[in-house]
Amino acid sequence: MKRKRLYCPHCGDSLCREREEDVERDFCPACRTFFYENPLPVVSVVMSSPQREILLVKRGRRPYRGRWCLPTGFVESGESIEAAALRELEEETGLRGRIVGLVDVDSVRNGFYGDLIFLTFEAEAEAEAAPGQPHAGSDTVAVRYFPLGALPSLAFPSNKRAVERFIAAKADYWAIVDSFSLAAGGAGAAGGPRKNLLSDRLVKVIEANAELISRLWMEEVTTSRSTRGYHHFDRQRLFVRVHTILSQFGKWLGGGYDDRDIQAYYTDMGRERRREGFHLGEVLSALSLIKKHLWEFALSRGMWQKTIDIYMALELDRRIVIFFDKASFYTALGYEGK
Question: Is the pTM above the cut of 0.70?
Fold first, then answer.
């Protein structure tokens, strides 16, 4: 429990309580002086590993001795908030870092210290600092990284709140990184289905609306100057053909349709379109229009609201381009009899 001030530090007389501006404060009658109780500034640091683990320290002193927390401590007089955070990080973990940004600010009533203001920063290791493992400092007995899903109960509620806000703030960024890593090898490549890409959400919407996309494509392909050969072609057959291609696109994205399937189908399709009397330019233009309507439909679903939405749309665009570039290439080969 925080000890109360009993005597005046100037004259030594006993203090009493008086009201000043509707606030009751310690008061020295002899000196006619009020004493103010201001919140103490406390700094904490969130440092995460590339594996998305949070660095925690086990406290070696009261309060909360033996409990885990973020590197945490009081700001010294004459010290900036940022400098205090980095000092606590180095003192308690042996790691030198730099401030990335402010994570959270919280006001707390603490029975041991009184009113506190917790300022939590995100930090990362200095680029020029020598690599090394964290080690316990003078106020700590252990230091280690914890996975996000296995964090221990934290000593300070403000630490818990700051970690939750840190994780929430990083969620979109981590989702983008994960999705990029999954897509890096090319969606639908041989070796099994590729799941959890961000754009899979849009793919499901496209699959559910394949009939609408097919009809939008038919309206344009039967009127466009670049696809004159399709203007009087049987509409039912056109619908079946475009719907089949959309279905193949969905299967390819899910890993159930690989490059060999694309090569076989579109090479045959190129040969068939040549026998039917279509010009190669018309066939490739028709494929390009499917790609266009897929992309326009995705954009019509309310994209560009957040950064993660933009990435999701761009990722889908990349996947569309890869599939239809392959389809166009093999269609041309088949048409030319190769």
Answer: no
